[in-house]
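In the current project phase, the collection of sequences with tokenised folds has grown. One resulting record follows, to show the layout:
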Amino acid sequence: MKSYGSTQTFGIDVSRWDYSDDPNELDWLDWNQLRTSNGVDFAIIKASSGGQRSNDGVWIKNVLTVDPKVVDNIKGAKGIGLSIGFYHYALIDDDNYRVR
């Protein structure tokens, strides 16, 4: 992390994976608890994922999935006064595009 003088900023990366799929379990991400935590200045929110995927050998291009918790995460982060940013998780499922 880049430091400017003695000031550092800290953030969290959030997505649907920070929530439990089981309604009987508590979510791992609790915005109210995070509000009382010290040092969290921003949230980077997963907005979407996708790219090229193979389905039984047939290429499906430009498959895009919006993160189902993106709106909840925007509301949660803004609700406790965090700055927010977004990212797209790119998927390439083709040996010709992989970095070797």
Observations:
- Strands lie at 11-14, 42-55, 58-66, 83-92.
